[in-house]
Structures are given as C-alpha cells and as structure tokens.
Design goal:
single chain, alpha+beta, five-stranded mixed sheet, 7 helices, 10 strands, globular
Length: 309
C-alpha cells in the first residue's frame, strides 16, 4: 500500500502552481502527476514531486525483489522471471528479451516520427512558455510532463479531423441503448451474466445521465456494480476507459465506471454510435465484466490471464 500511496506535500513547501490541487490536513495530495492539466506549470511541478526520489519506496522495491528471488530459488528456479514465465506463451526470459529488443528496433523510427509530430503540435499551438515567433520547431523540447497532455490533445484533434473527412460517409447508426442491450444478451449467453438496471440512491450519481447497473451471475448472484457515464462534458478527456473504483475482496463487491465521450441525443433522435465508438464500448464493458468475473487473490498485480467464475 505504501508503494502506491498518494504524495503529500505540506502547503508551506508547495509551489504556487499546485495550490489549486486537492488538499487534506494542510497538505496538497497528489494521486497522480496531473498529466491532464492544461497548465504546463502544474504538470511540471506535479510530475517533479510525484516522481521524486523516495527512500521508503525504494526500500520496499528492493525488499520485494529480494523476496521474489528467494521464492524463485526455493521453488527450483534460477530467478523470478523463469518462475513467473513458466507455462506462459512466452516460455522463458530469453524469448521475452528477444521480443522486447526486436520490438524496440522496429518501433524506433515510428516513435521518433511521433515525437517530432508532438513537438510540432506543441510549437504550433503555443500553449507553453516560449514565444513561438522566436523559436524554431527543431528547438522545441518535449518534457516528460508534456507527453501525456500533448499526445492526448493531438489525438483528439486527429480524431475530430478524421471524423470530419471520413465518417460522414459512415453514419452513426447504432443506438446506445440497443448496443448496451445486445452486449448484455451476449454476456448472458457467454458468461451467464445479466445487467440489471437499478434505481440509484439519493446523491449517489454525479450526473443525471449516469446509469447504475447491477451485475448478476446465474450461480453467484450479485457480483458487482457498474456505472455507465457515456456522454460528453467539459471535464472529460478522451479516450473511453474503465475506472475500477473498488476491487473485489472477501468482504466487498467490485465497482466500476465506464466513462465515454459520446454525443448525447436530442428530443428527436436518441444517441447513436458508429463502428469505432461501438468497439470502444464493447472493449471497456468487457474489461469491467472481466474484473468482476475474475477470481484472483491479488487483483492489482494480476493480468487478464486468471481464473474466472
């Protein structure tokens, strides 16, 4: 728990740019490095403080590595990598290393091109400290705290442009309600899971458009709660995602939120999806249901290959 604990900075030691972030007990609380902030100053100071050296976390990491090595030796392996890859598709650390090296070499040219595109985007949009009239694109520096924000802005602009040029010939013809209903039918046939609409408690929802669903299994009964937050707002950023609000334990059921940025309907036409947005919904709903069906002891460190109900 300590390794993923929020970073807490006493307010008197905090840069002015971070004072607008959430605080508790006279301390600014950083649960991430604020990569979605429109302020370059907030992103920089949050990044520097969130990732700064922490001797306690490093000690925890060293202790974890030592215990993993000890466990591997006790079970007849040369190292932990051999143990964890036993029976997997990769098979051995040598295969994994070869895959990583080859992927690195193949992706290097396209990664370099993408970095240059982001540098141009940062330069052209002039959202940063320099005066773009006195700086060449080749002189633009893309800092570690820029990459997430700039790439997301670039992706959003690209998607909008692509939609303007291509998607008019492919209309949004799948209504959101029908898509959710049919995904529910498929899940019931495949996994024995039913999605049941529930009336929320007073004050439970953060927006009137959010839908609360109970996820019920044919044998296990209620296995989790799912909230569908589909429609666009000023506070959201694409792409769609599945937020695991609460993990499964012996004493509590999991809770997930599917957050998307779909355009709401109007009085004459319900909201509709195209093929791309349908695939996004299918993927995120599938991820949420997988979390609820999985039966793994250590949820936060387990991948998708795990026992299901």
């Amino acid at each position: 728990k300590e390794s993923v604990a929020p970073v807490r900075i006493p307010i008197e030691e905090c840069p002015d740019s971070l004072l607008s972030l959430p605080s508790q007990d006279n301390k600014i609380v950083l649960t991430d490095w604020a990569d979605e902030s429109t302020s370059d100053s907030i992103r920089e100071h949050a990044w520097r403080n969130y990732y700064k050296y922490d001797p306690k976390k490093e000690a925890l990491l060293h202790d974890l590595l030592k215990k993993r090595h000890k466990l591997a030796k006790a079970t007849g392996y040369n190292n932990y990598a051999e143990r964890v890859l036993q029976g997997s598709m990769a098979g051995s650390p040598a295969v994994v290393k070869e895959f990583i090296d080859e992927t690195h070499e193949q992706l290097r040219p396209s990664a370099r091109d993408e970095m240059y595109e982001m540098e141009k985007f940062k330069y052209m949009h002039g959202k940063f400290w320099y005066n773009k009239g006195h700086l060449a694109v080749s002189e633009v520096v893309l800092f570690p705290w820029d990459t997430g924000y700039v790439s997301e802005d670039y992706r959003s602009l690209y998607i909008k442009e692509e939609s303007r040029l291509i998607l008019p010939s492919l209309p949004d013809f799948l209504s959101v309600g029908s898509v959710v209903e049919q995904i529910g039918v498929w899940m019931e046939d495949t996994f024995g899971v039913t999605l049941v609409a529930e009336r929320p408690l007073k004050g439970e929802l953060w927006h009137s458009d959010v839908i609360k669903l109970a996820v019920e299994h044919e044998k296990e009964g209620l296995i989790g709660l799912l909230y569908l937050d589909f429609y666009t707002s000023d506070k959201k950023r694409s792409p769609p995602c599945n937020h695991v609000i609460r993990s499964r334990t012996d004493k509590q059921l999991p809770i997930s939120v599917i957050e998307c940025n779909y355009t709401p309907g109007n009085g004459y036409r319900p909201p509709h999806l195209n093929i791309s947005t349908f695939e996004n919904m299918f993927r995120e709903l599938g991820s949420a249901i997988h979390n609820m069906l999985s039966r793994n002891k250590h949820f936060q460190t387990s991948a998708s290959s795990c026992p299901l109900i």
